[in-house]
Each structure stands twice: as structure tokens, then as C-alpha cells.
Amino acid sequence: MMITGKPMSRSVIQQEDTADQTARRKENQKNDDESALPRDPEDIDIFTKLIHNLSKSTDYNIIILKTRSVDWELIDEMYKHVTEKFVDSILLPEDLQKVLLTYDHLALGRRRSDNAIVAMTVVRAEIDVIDGKRYNLIRAGLAYVDKEYQNGVFFPAVRAYFSLKELMLFPDIPLYHVAKCYSYKGYLTAIAMKHGKAYPTYDKATPEWEKKMIIKYGRKYETNFNEETFVVKCNHTKVQENSAILSDKNKANPHINFYCSQNPEWIKGHSLITIAHCTWNDVGDLLKKATMKSQYLQQASLKSNL
To answer: Is residue 305 part of a domain?
Structure first.
């Protein structure tokens, strides 16, 4: 099914002049004055080079788009791709567009040979306050990567890209990632911060301030949100069986066991909200991980061509 016509105006879905965006503009201006950083970090050439260099070793390009620039042709392509390969959904492409416009950026992995989508996610950063303490929250959604490209550079590269941009723009504000984890695989990725702490996990209780952050996010963006378990019940999607296989090795992992016990009906499409504090050292780890994966893929490609 191809949707025709122009996408709805962003103002219909999301007002441009929100208090959050006004605060971000002021913060950007403050940082411009203090460190001469451009107001739009996409103007910093290093970010474009970073994504380009990390994706050179793969057979796909990583592309960052503004969600407001996404047209119906791309929405239809994304909708078919995700519903065929990852989730069974009763939602319409129009609903996908509404979700897209609650974020600022779309990251795509497109295979060079046929331009097919092999990976994607949407991202937005926003500054908020709890108990007088400001924090910068990066939220992501619609995360997907084809099976053959899993454990590749896409997610480490995209996560490093946006983390580095936000830390450079707002170095004095703690940076956190929030994620809706629809599977144990997404959960393992969400909590993989070695220096900053992630919650909830099996080995430590979630502190009160971090609980308030998760609950505030859940109340603001989710329906059917359980403030005790941090689980969001979803009536529209479910994980396909071939995406929900647990091996014996998986079952022996305490993090996976925690995820499955905290969110026992995840195969129905229910998700677990997690947060993770991201430090400069974590960004370094993400860049190192993406670079090592990129170098490994380059070496593997050279060997296969011998």
C-alpha cells in the first residue's frame, strides 16, 4: 500500500515553539557564547565525517535525516520493512508518521547495492528538570537492524554520534539515554554503559531520583505504563516468534533473566523502560566499539576478496 499526498504539517502533530525547544535554544545560545559552538551541531563537519568513516567498512551507508523532511514514500517503505521483518502490527502508516514526528532525527542504514533499508532508529534529545537538577535525555525508538547486520557498527555509531553532539553542546548537564526495550537484545544494548550507571538491572536497586526520571518519562509519553515495574503494555504490536528465541546461553545470562522476569509478556509487544547515564568515557567506549567493528569488517572483506 502506497500512501499518496503530502505529509501532514509538523505543526499539526507537534508545536514548534514548545517550552522545551525554547529552553534548548537558550542553552544552545549560552554554549555559543561560551565556546563558539554552532547552534546546530550538524554544521560541525566532524560529525558527518564520523558517520561516514564508520560506515565505510560496511556495505551500507548511515544516513541522518530530520524527521520533518520524511515523505510518504519513505514512511511507506519503513512501515512495510518493519512490519514484515520484526513486528506484526495493526497500526497504519499514518500512525507511524505521528510517531516519527515526536522525534527530531531519523537514522537509516541503506545497503549500497540496492538502497534497501537494513537498519533504522529515531532519536530526540530534550532537557528536563527533576528536584531542581537538570538533565539532558536522549530518547530513541523504532530501533531495528536486519539479522545479517546485527552486532555491526550501526547502533554504536549512531549512539556515539548523538551522545557526542549533546555532550559538546551541553557539557555541564548530565546526559542520559532512555529506551523502550521490546526484547532482551534491546535491553542488553540499552544498559551497556561501563562508566555511567543504568537502571533497572538485576544487581542494584534503582535510586529514587532515577525512578522519578523513568516515571516522568512514562507519564509523559506512554499509556498503560506501570510505575512499579516500568513496563509499558502495548496492544498494537507483538514480537514475531523468530525474533524471540531464547537459547540456553541466553537463559544463563542474569541480565536476560531479569528482563524476562521484569517484563514476562515481552513477546506480546510489552516493553521495559530503561535509563543509562552516558559520560565522556562511555562515548569513547562507543566510538572504540564502532571502530573495532568497522576494522574487523574491513579485514573480513579483504580476506573474502583474496
So the answer is: no
- SS3 (DSSP) at 70: coil
- In contact, 58 and 157? CB cutoff 8 Å: no
Contact between 143 and 155 under an 8 Å Cβ cutoff? The reply is yes
**Maximum pairwise Cα distance, the chain:** 60
DSSP 3-state of 277: strand
Percentages (nearest 5) of helix, strand, coil residues in the chain: 45, 25, 30
- Residue 86 pLDDT grade (very low, low, confident, very high; cuts 50, 70, 90): low
C-alpha cell of 75? 514512511
Contact yes or no for 183/243 (Cβ under 8 A): yes
State the first-to-last Cα distance of the chain, in angstroms, to the nearest integer: 44
**CB neighbours of 231 closer than 8 A, spacing ≥ 6?**
225, 262, 263, 270, 271, 272, 273
Residue 155 belongs to domain with CATH number: 3.40.630.30
Whether 262 contacts 200, CB under 8 Å: yes
Residue span of the structural domain in which 189 resides: 22-299
- Enter the C-alpha cell of residue 287: 566510538
Question: Which amino acid is it at 133?
Answer: K
Count of other CB atoms within 10 angstroms of residue 100:
24
Is the separation of the CB atoms in 274 and 178 below 8 Å? yes
CA dihedral (13, 68, 40, 178) positive or negative: positive
Q: Which three cell numbers stand for residue 57?
A: 567498512
Query: 7 lies in a domain?
Result: no
Q: Is residue 4 part of a domain?
A: no
Average pLDDT value for the chain: 78
Residue 299 has a pLDDT of 61
Q: What are the tens digits of pLDDT across the range 212-250?
A: 999 999 998 888 899 999 999 886 666 655 566 777 788
Supply the pLDDT for residue 87.
56
Per-residue pLDDT at 206 exceeds 90: yes
Cβ contact 177:276 at 8 Å: yes
